[in-house]
Amino acid sequence: MKALSKEEIDFFKNELLTKGKDIFARYGVAKTTIRELSKAAGISSGSFYMFFDSKEDLYYEIFTGEIRKFNEEYGKMMEKRDVNPAELVGTFIRNGISMIENNQLFRTFVWEAQTHVFQKFASRTNEMKDFLIRVVKIWNDMGILIPEKPEVIAGTIRAIFFSAYHKGGIGEANYDKSMKLLIDSVARGIIKG
Question: Is residue 187 within 8 Å of residue 86, measured between CB atoms?
Answer without folding.
Answer: yes
